Amino acid sequence: MEYIYAALLLHNAGKEVTEEGITAIMEAAGIAADKGRIKALISALGDVNIDEAMAQAQPAYAPAAAVAPVPTAMPGQAPPEAVETKKEEKKEKKEEEEKGEETGMEGLASLFGS
C-alpha cells in the first residue's frame, strides 16, 4: 500500500511517477524499497489516468464524509456518557450521605433529650 501512497504523493505534487521518485519517498519514510514491486507498480500505472481513477473512486468515499463523527474520549479519559453517569452517581451518593447524616443527628438528639 505504501508504494501506491508514494505514487499518489508524487502525482499530487505534480511530479512524474517514476521508479526513482517512489524509491526516494520510500527511503525518506525509512522503508526498504523493493525494486520489483516498484517496477510492477510503474508498469501497472502506465495506462492509468490517475486523476480520472481518483474522480471515479471519489463518490465511493463521499457518503462516509457526510456522517457525523461520534464523540470519543482521549486516551486515558472516560467516554462522555461515562463522565455524565459518574457525575450523577456522585450526586446521588452525596445526597444519600446527607440524608444519613440528618438521620444520624436526629438519633443523637434523642439520646440527649432534645
Question: Could you explain the architecture of this structure?
Answer:
It is built from five helices and no strands. It has helices spanning 2-12, 19-28, 35-45, 50-66, 80-111. With 114 residues, the chain is an all-alpha fold. The chain folds into two domains: 2-66, Arc Repressor Mutant, subunit A (Orthogonal Bundle); 68-114.
Write a concise keyword list for the protein shown above.
mainly alpha; 114 residues; Arc Repressor Mutant, subunit A; 5 helices; 0% strand; 2 domains; 71% helix
What's the arrangement of secondary structure elements?
Elements: H1 2-12, H2 19-28, H3 35-45, H4 50-66, H5 80-111
Helix pairs in contact: 1-2
Summarize this structure briefly:
The chain has five helices and no strands.
